[in-house]
Amino acid sequence: MSFSLAHALTGLFWLGALLLLGGLARRASLWQQGRSASVSWLGLLAMPKRYFVDIHHVVAREPAVARAHVAAAGGGVAILLLSALNYGLMLYQGWLDVLLVLMAVVMLLGARMMQARRLQAPPRLSQGRWQVLPARLRLFALGSLLAAGLLFAGPQLGLAGQLIAVVALLMLALGGAELALGIGLGWPMKHAVAGLLHLAFHPRVERFAGKSSDLKPLNLAAGELGVAKVEDFAWNRLLSFDACVQCGKCEAACPAYAAGQPLNPKKLIQDMVAAQSRGTDPAYAGNPHPGREATVVVKPGEDIVGSVLAAETLWSCTTCRACVENCPMLIEHVDTVVNLRRHVTLSRGEVPGKGSEALANLRNTDTVGGYPLAVRYHWAIDLDLPLLQPGEHTEWLLLAGEGAFDMRYQRALRALVKVLKAAGVNVAVLGAAERDCGDVARRLGDEAGFQRLAQANIATLAQYRFAHIVTPDPHVFHCLANEYPALGGQFDVWHHSKLLEHLLARRAIPLKADATPLPPLTFHDPCYLGRYNDGFNAPRNVLKGIGIKVVDMQRSGRDARCCGWGGGAAFTDIPGQRRIPDMRMDDIRETGTGRVAVACPNCTAMLEGVVGERADVIELAELVVERLA
Amino acid sequence: MKIAVLIAPAVHPVSGRPCAGEADLAALALAQRLSSQVDVWYAGAADDAALADYLARGATHIHTLALAAGREVLSPLAEALQDYALVLCGARAGGGDGSGLLPYQLAEQLGRALLPDVLDLSKSDQQWQALQALPKGVRRTLAAKLPLVASVHARAASAVGWSYARLQQGKIQRKAATGAALPQVVLEPARRARALVAASKVSGHARMQGAIAGGEGKSAGIVVKQGDSVEKAQVVLDYLRQHQLVDF
Amino acid sequence: MDFSTQAIPRIDPRRPWVLGPSGLKRIVLGDDSGSRDAALLAHGPAHKPLRSSGPFSQRLLVVAHAERGQLDDAAREAIAAAAILAGKDGEVLALLYGMQDAAPEALAELAVDRALTVADPGYAPEQKLALLQQLLQQESPHTVLFADRSEDADLGRRLACRARLSVVTDVVEIAADGVRRRQPGAGFSLRERAQVLLLARGVAEAKLPFVGKGERLQTAALPAISEQVQDLGSAASPASQLALEEADLIVSAGNGVSNVPGFLALAEALGAAVGASRVAVDDGRFSRDKQVGATGKTVQASAYIALGISGAVQHLQGIKSCRHVIAVNLDAAAPMIKRADLSIIDDCQSFISAFEALVRRERNLV
Ligand SMILES: Cc1cc2nc3c(=O)[nH]c(=O)nc-3n(C[C@H](O)[C@H](O)[C@H](O)COP(=O)(O)OP(=O)(O)OC[C@H]3O[C@@H](n4cnc5c(N)ncnc54)[C@H](O)[C@@H]3O)c2cc1C
Ligand code: SF4
Ligand code: SF4
């Protein structure tokens, strides 16, 4: 009898393996719809490190889930490997069965923990097949336990043993189907195969070596104009969508979703899955884009935007990267959003709201607001701020950015210049030669506009001699520091928070001696300084350096909520239930400090645009200038 | 039906760069709404880059009659447009002279009726009907037979959004043309224009009073705090009447 | 009405009343109405001398369309320009459409010496051109002036093209060395004085210290010439449906307006288009196409009445080119008050109902 059970297991194993391979082949054919991408097969070797280090980094933020996953997945993988040895290769070793029993117990525990969590599933989790997955995994683990146990201690059990064997085989078949068929039929366990391959062939491999948040340039000369149809995605992007576990971490982090705008990043990724699988996968069973139907109609051959995905969904995104930061499967939502936007903007010219006006202004005036370049530094007229001449040298070149046209933000700029002067910093500006950095153009999908501005700025900057660039605008900072290099512009760019931190650390800024304690305040992390550039500490150190205690909001640092401006969202202004800055002001209110420090011209404008009782919004430099001796 | 649309680069009011003019874009969009055979014409000295905005906003093909700077464009245009039963142009170009004279000159030269400030065009029976925009939202319906010249109001229709792909695909076809030389104009930097003022025999005191009141400057707004709502309402109505902002 | 000057801090106490540059009285606060009228009488029409009693050896012609028997500022400025340019021996001749009922004194007050008044038939360019050409032949004026807006602008261009006269449009300055017009993107351009001048606003000071002779030619009929284009009639769209970008008078509601039906009734009574701040739109009080500001519409109204709007920069961006801004707000420190030409510190709700009642009464709408 034990002989026949073992052979049945061998049969089952190979059947499962075949089904899995067949399913993988089918899925791979879907990925093949995409464009070619330059990937390295060495990625397969790097997979374990990426799994255990990079993914762990994200998953470990939720320890209970991490433990459950380690047990279930670790147990499961071990069972499969052991079965491959013992039954696949027909070794039939008793000691391997002992190990199998142990692993089955581990997996069982993991699956149990998952099931328990599913009882009170947070709303961000998808239902449907995902809801029953833990039970299926338990079935598989239990089947393994029974089968292996039976084979180890089996012969004594007689008829009961035969019954148990039948039950075990049934359990294994049922539970195993989940594993074997997942990849082919788009069931939840698809994520295991696709997820691992995604780690190997990640479209943004450099993120495993360090920070990588820059958008990649399009080769416009080669006719690249963004993604219209599934076929326009690189194949490994399509693969990346299949890695999604529908955990909804992105959904929970997304400010646009919380504001009731029609964007749910999880659904967005699933929309891409639906588009590439032509709707053959099981129906999506999670939260829809707010205010929209959950079902999508896939019309093969049609553009994604307008069929599978509503344009408003695309334009609701603030590119805040909260989703990317939280995704355990390392999926790159922002790249996807921008790739789709590029098509809508470059090919169709359909940018909603004031977005198209902003782009027209950039084309016509090189400023977002349509201002004359000559007035950018009018606020500094009495500050004796040198205008850098071509050929002249300065230590620091200040780029004020678009905030220079905003009367409110000019206060902050004046404060910054005063502080730098007091610290004896050698600083100068470009005056009318400074153009917009291209951030808004690029996030709104106008890659052509971005590249024009970037190249013009790079050519301009090449005429001047300076050691470093400093800017108070995190968007300017991000563009110059991270996105200009791909176009040939290498500069040493600092956000002003870092320069102020540096100067305070060197005691270069003369501060008032009196130690009147300053009231505490809270700090709002700008996305493009924080999540995009890990600039979490510098502004906090500046505040500490001038003796102000920071009471952090619950959502701060890496988890900070966007102010709602980024990605051109303030221009496209897609309606929702609430406004993102209003929610951020609620976060600020919760700290009870009544004051919030900001480090970005756009956060300043957004938070000051909140009506009713609101906290005072003060720029970092304004706080420092108050403490000047 | 073939429709000709006339376009010309506008000068951007802030940067002075060439861009598309609002009314010309509206003419293009209106023509495209009316017919699938729309020919876009430009006569003048501007280079292709100055016409780029029109390509990006839906003109797939621009016929350019290339003239040297400072030449009149009327006769070459009139010659090229003779065979079009319907010629549309923006009511006012945002560049060049921007005098709004061209539609009139063209209609005169071609011996056709001109429909001014058109918001919409439609065909009914043998006639074309035009909706004309008058100030304060008044609309007038005009009817005429082809051939026609229409000057199109900037709010008539909106052209498709600016697209890089359309810009890349668009074509400009140049043909050399000649026109008579226009008188040279002398350009001067903008300043506050001096209004004609009648020499006054009023007393110095009265003139002082006038001077104190200043121009239409924004320095001193009037703030009314006292009185009840009825009185304040009267103040607002007085103000509106004094500045002829209401007509009752 | 009794407004104490102390409560009106922005007004210099030394000038209880002021004469506006256009000769129109500005609001008089802190003074009773009797003395105000007396003060104005000193500058009334009765005291104005005749510009010139002739004889005239040359003349200028001004052509203007009146609306409901009244000439607007632009047309008045065109006549004033002619009167200032005419000189002692020059006569101001006017061809006025829609002013058949004007009294000679009214024509004299406009500084017109001789006027031909014709009923306005609406759209009839061929007939109007024929009459105009007839007049040119009879009177041979050396210059014909039009205000460069709407019907006058149209007729002026037609005349220049039909009669092949030299023409300069958008004239902003008439000087000894020629005329200046605004050149798109290039400041001014200087031209020789042409036979037909189309005048931009502000080219002349409409307030004149003299009067004209005010003679009236026989009221003429338009020559019976067939038109190529048929006028099928005009219609005014109701103000509430007027596109904000086109509206000349806008009432706009902010967070301070809670009584929306009352507010809409006021707009209706005034014949004003309806605008709103973003907050009022977000709250669902108004549809999104009513929003004025950076992320809404940019408007160019002559008058913008902001009710309960604080005046955040993003809102002010949308009303940059409004000529007159009137603010009603409870908070005298609101930024809108700084932008406004006239500010009323009052509760919106009671102001709106009072204002609506007043407007209805004045328009006999009951
Ligand atoms: C990127 C961005 C874009 C924006 N775009 C726009 C835009 O396009 N348009 C726009 O309007 N806003 C825009 N805003 C919002 C803007 O910053 C302000 O929040 C908004 O304009 C405020 O609207 P409000 O004045 O109606 O409301 P509040 O700021 O709440 O002001 C209400 C005013 O009414 C007064 N008031 C209250 N009650 C009464 C009463 N009973 N009687 C009289 N007065 C009363 C108060 O004193 C106050 O001054 C934008 C903001 C941002 C950040
Ligand atoms: S995209 Fe990432 S974070 Fe969002 S549901 Fe999928 S796996 Fe979770
Ligand atoms: S980038 Fe921010 S706004 Fe966009 S989908 Fe992700 S979380 Fe949402």
From TrEMBL, chain A:
GO terms for molecular function: 4 iron, 4 sulfur cluster binding; metal ion binding; oxidoreductase activity. PROSITE patterns: 4FE4S_FER_1, 4FE4S_FER_2. The keyword Transmembrane applies. It comes from the Bacteria. Residues 235-264 form the 4Fe-4S ferredoxin-type domain. Keywords: 4Fe-4S, Iron, Iron-sulfur, Membrane, Metal-binding, Oxidoreductase, Transmembrane, Transmembrane helix. It holds the Pfam family CCG. The keyword Metal-binding applies. The chain crosses the membrane at residues 65-89, 95-114, 135-153, 159-181. SUPFAM superfamilies: alpha-helical ferredoxin. GO terms for cellular component: plasma membrane. InterPro entries: 4Fe4S_Fe-S-bd, 4Fe4S_Fe_S_CS, Csal_0991-like_N, Cys_rich_dom, HdrC_iron-sulfur_subunit, Helical_ferredxn. This is DUF3483 domain-containing protein. The lineage of its organism: Bacteria, Pseudomonadati, Pseudomonadota, Betaproteobacteria, Neisseriales.
TrEMBL record, chain B:
InterPro entries: Rossmann-like_a/b/a_fold (IPR014729). It comes from Aquitalea aquatica. This is Electron transfer flavoprotein subunit beta.
UniProtKB/TrEMBL annotation, chain C:
The keyword Electron transport applies. GO terms for biological process: fatty acid beta-oxidation using acyl-CoA dehydrogenase. Coiled coil: none annotated. It holds the Pfam family ETF. FAD binds at residues 277-278, 291-295, 308-315, 329. The keyword Transport applies. InterPro entries: DHS-like_NAD/FAD-binding_dom, ETF_a/b_N, ETF_a/FixB, ETF_asu_C, Rossmann-like_a/b/a_fold. Binds 1 FAD per dimer. It comes from the Bacteria. This is Electron transfer flavoprotein subunit alpha/FixB family protein.
